[in-house]
């Protein structure tokens, strides 16, 4: 589906990614694991065009997209749910969701149907649909950010820490939804997630990043069994 | 590590850059009036010094405190007119006239500062513009007092050791005043007041929650900037011997703003650089006749676009190569937290707490008690009112109804900075660091208290930094730190005030398992030291490992309470919050 080839990214003089390559095939769920500052979010931001690589390329179905604007990439079906709940604070929940669908032309009925679907996933949002974004609690804003990403009906969904700040029952719900849109809609997903055991339980494959490099790749089962991954990301053992 | 630090300081005996700059300044002040020989250029030098002083006032209010002021020319005018009227019409001495002018500026600064203390951004800009325009109107139209558009002539110069009867001698006088004000502004930057100002600029809410009386500090900043500008005005009036309202209008207020932005608003030297450039540039460009204003305008735009930190920011960037960080001594004692009460005694009692936002009942009659030595978890679904309760306890919100007793005292209605002083500290769900300040400065703001010396503040700050394991990063700007370290800085900053009770809002969010293990160890260590903690957190494996008891909320009401273990088995909690219990607890 899409491929990242030997990408280098820097913020000013600080190198964030030094030559990472990864591939996500159509219909896959792939997760990126790693410590804070390893470059996971930077990778997502590079794929969605918010950052541009110094070297290397990003290919979507074989076509280079790394020089395109974020808007152009969104129109090609890649949707990004950024970390930190970047919702529109001065708009209502409903308006936020409508804007989520602005990457494609659509009929009014289609919009209403899609909205009914996301309200089914997050009943809280339906109750709050006329509330302004900033009045929502942190976790509700996170739900809205995910819901807005779903409204785009993307072919590829990039999710940055979807479970951040959500109650346990909603974390389980979010991962159920991730699995569901992957199976039912055939959406391809690239996940960044600190909750590694949850992420690996729904993923097909995963990559582990350290300081701007990919240090490990494998199927979800392999990574779940890997002693290093267990120690560092699954809370297998207590650390010094 | 201590020995390594000591060795470093022995190897590089160093002069503080401030003293070096002061020595350099003295030399420049001594030489400049000798280099400018013509009467015209010497007058320009005097004008540059006067404008430089007014711009230094803006460094305090805009550069340090982050409050935009477009009324600086009005304060500048108050000083000028006091000296002009005092020495010509009222027949008082120059120095008495100056004191009157400074008092008028203090009064005007206090009025402007206290009426705008709740405003920010473009609203503040508008109010200060109105203030400036009202001043200009009075200045022009109250002819009986101010002389109106004709202005005032025959202004006297101050009696001094030697008669200041030549432009050259007066230029020395003006430059010495500039140097003294610059030294004052430079010195304020790293005092407790200066740190409080810069904390307000970076994040007003966090500053208030850490114990900074933000309203008072903002009023002080306006007063300081007004007094400094008035001094500049007085120097200008006696330098030119004639003044008229044209020199104190809105155009000049904008010019002062341009000077401080071009020079670099965060620094005394930047302000002088900016004032110098914008005083002399028009003169150099004079030969270009009609297009000189265009070039002048373009130059300002270019500097602001390409050097957002001003010329001084650029100089600083070059100078960083040669800078050696200040060596800080290790703390004399370990971090003391948790107060000195008996374990198990009631420390916080919340009675029937209610908070409504319009029609939304965010918190609807909650009671709970926190005892000394506990780690008390506050859990519940998203939107159940947990963060609202933290905000009510720390004073950011005022409850609709209910009581909060902390250490035996009703704290409802106290401002957040007062509550911080009673011994309650907090962290924020989305980090609220002072991003452009160093780790050391961030923690110092948390450590400073009204009583006690600067030495004690530094000691507390260093103890907190050592506890958080950050001594190697003290001089780094927080913005540049990785997320995990930023979280530690926020924690160290909260601990530096030596609180009895620490409120933590989702400390585990965004941390991976390794980092969460470290957080658990850290919380346990703090608890062993006697600190009581109230924690809001969604990671149940973290909660079940650290919390001694828990209160569960749903829709703003308490639905369960007890030990962490009991609560996490409660059927209502499992249904509304946990879902699959095994998955949630990670077992």
Secondary structure topology:
The complex is a heterodimer of chains A (240) and B (587).
Chain A: E1 2-11, E2 14-24, E3 29-34, H1 40-47, E4 55-60, E5 63-64, H2 70-75, E6 78-81, H3 93-100, H4 108-121, H5 123-127, H6 138-151, E7 156-160, H7 168-184, E8 188-192, H8 196-202, E9 205-210, E10 213-219, H9 220-225, H10 227-233
Parallel strand pairs in A: 3-8, 3-9, 6-7, 7-8
Antiparallel strand pairs in A: 1-2, 1-4, 4-5, 9-10
Helix pairs in contact in A: 3-6
Chain B: H1 2-11, H2 17-35, H3 39-64, H4 72-90, H5 94-115, H6 121-141, H7 143-146, H8 167-189, H9 192-202, H10 204-209, H11 214-240, H12 250-263, H13 268-285, H14 292-306, H15 310-319, E1 346-357, E2 360-371, E3 375-379, H16 386-393, E4 401-406, E5 409-410, H17 416-422, E6 424-426, H18 439-447, H19 454-467, H20 483-495, E7 501-505, H21 513-528, E8 532-536, H22 540-546, E9 549-554, E10 557-563, H23 564-567, H24 571-578, H25 581-585
Parallel strand pairs in B: 3-8, 3-9, 6-7, 7-8
Antiparallel strand pairs in B: 1-2, 1-4, 4-5, 9-10
Helix pairs in contact in B: 2-8, 3-8, 3-9, 3-11, 3-12, 3-13, 4-5, 4-11, 5-11, 8-11, 9-11, 9-18, 12-13, 12-15, 13-14, 13-15, 18-19, 18-20, 19-20
Q: Total helix count of chain A? A: 10
* Tally of alpha and pi helices of chain B: 25
Main CATH class of chain A = Alpha Beta
| Uncertain residue ranges of chain A | none
| Number of separate strands of chain A | 10
Distance between the termini of chain B: 41 Å
Our Rg estimate of chain B from Cα atoms comes to: 28 Å
The total number of structural domains of chain A is: 1
CATH architecture call of the largest domain in chain B: 3-Layer(aba) Sandwich
